[in-house]
Amino acid sequence: MLKRLAPGATGLPLQSVSVTIQANDAVTCYTLGLVYKSDSKNPIEANITFPTNETWALRKVTTQVADRVLESKIVAKEKVKEKYDDDISRSRLASFVNYDDDRKDCLQMTIGNIAPKETVKINYEFVGVNQVDGNAYYFGLPNQILEMIIPVKSTRRCKRRCNCFPRYHIINYYKEYTHTPTTIKFEVSTSTKINKASLYIDNTKDKLLELEEPSESWSDELETVATSIGFILRWQPSGKEGSSILVEKNPSGKRLSALASYPLQFPNVEPLFTRGEFVLLLDRSKSMGGKRLQLAIEASILFLKSLPSESIFNIISFGGSFEPMFTESVKNSDENIEKAVATLSEFKANMGGTDIFSPLHHLFSFKTKNKSPVPRFVFLLTDGAVENPGAVLSLVSLQKASNRVFSMGIGEQVSEKLVQEAADRGRGKALFIQEPEEIPAAIVGILEDAIKPCATNIQAWWLDTEGNPIKEAKLPDGIGQFGYPDEIIRVLDDVTELKDLSGMKVAYELLNADIEETDFDEVVSFTKSDLIDGHDLACLVAREEIRRLEKEAKVDEATIVAKSKQNSVLSNYTSFYMVCKDQRKFSSEVKSVNLTLATPIQKGVLVQNRRTQMKKSKTASRSPAQAMKRKRVVENPTKKCKSAKRVSPET
After folding, report:
1. Helix (H) or strand (E) holding 198
2. What is the pLDDT of residues 184-200, one digit of tens each?
3. Beta-strand (E) ranges in 256-311?
4. What's the N-to-C CA distance of the chain in angstroms?
5. What pLDDT digit, counting tens, does each position of 537-550 carry?
């Protein structure tokens, strides 16, 4: 039976981090390398959990323990634990990786029978489609990956000895956590010359490295220390066109995979916006008190009076709870506007914490009242650190087909990651406001962007050499019902059967535009020069197919497992498994250690601590009445002890 290490003991501290990036015109492959070294006197089993990005596919894991290199293979997830336990019982070195059952945005890895003082090297290989910004590509290395800090025991405690810290734990980032040496290596190569390229810090835009002159490729290396910042690698190829098709032939030559990119560039017409639903989510937490809330109310009134005449609207105020102004969105009439303005004037910043998930979930559960489908525009205005950011982002992603999210963060303590990523996943835009006086102009500007014409009924077909449709292209989730200006449609598809491929036709209807002819179509051409060799696109096509199967009402697990094995791509129903069949001999008992690579620490934000074992042990030693009292405190994070002060990482 495995025993846990004493509280505060690390067992397997992280020694170094390496990130190797290989980028080209279509995709980027990056390898995340982690080096651990056991400091335990006992053999250990390590359970490592860290966040991942849903836009990337994990296609290979390699583990090296001492001189043993373990190559991974895909196996069914339901059988991996039984197989692992069997190998561990035979004193073999074994390991497996899969998506966390509770959090699908996290990977979980278990390595068993690590000897004392042994070094463990792990390489995770990911592949993903490059993001596009105007005429440039970029790859974002998120701060979740770089924030590889060694967990140590903290001595900070609440003065009143209440139970606020088992769930919300205040830390001093620099004093109580150790930084990890990090190496970032990258190589960028394109089919044409690279005009500009740079590596810069995500939130400050400070450039760390920059390409001095145009070149065929760019490679460099950066030594740094893992911190709570992210890095962006951005490059601009010469002659980059807006639309393109890239076809990849796998090494066997039996499979063709295609990536088509098409930016929605509408004709220069005046907006004639008569249809749409506009919902403003207004933060009324305690921190919005005073001038901030007053300016936000004035901006909300301006927002209401600027809405299109035949649209519908609603305002949902939130804090620790939420209050919709109307049961459901109402028509933009003089009577409803007057009622909304009167209600807004009575608003106070008295709603406690900052729970965004509940009002969003309530809003998304309602469909628009219009007879024909119309886009819904959600405007999120908040100034605080948000509870359950992962759940909020997942919810926005699920509802992006018919809901466009614009987010505005106010002040220095706002969760920048959530504000920016909510807008990215919601196909909208994000704004950060430092001064309260900027709120009215920001809301009006973002509203003007929202009422631009949009596309609906988007469809795409692959064409033969005669220009005839031969197969309908599979549009990504969230695209098809509505498309917005400058949004890029990325189509990943298997085109093995299309021997005479000449291009792709995209057709759509323009909505809310002052123009007589609203039906448009365009052809994206393909030439033999756009044919490349590789296996990257095949992995991404397989991942998209697997995700569609996982979302079906009746999940076909056998098909998912087969596709996952065939393409070596991890799914929710498979695991990467590694084993060394050499028997290992230990003189002491194996102990278990849990390592969680921390999520981003924002400025002055309380950091969530998942010490469930600590909570259970403390609660079990008390009387039932005391346990229930403590339980209520833990489950209500908005009622924390007054002596729990926020700590800035700069102190």
Report:
1. strand 181-201
2. 888 888 777 888 888 88
3. 256-263, 277-283
4. 43
5. 999 999 989 988 98
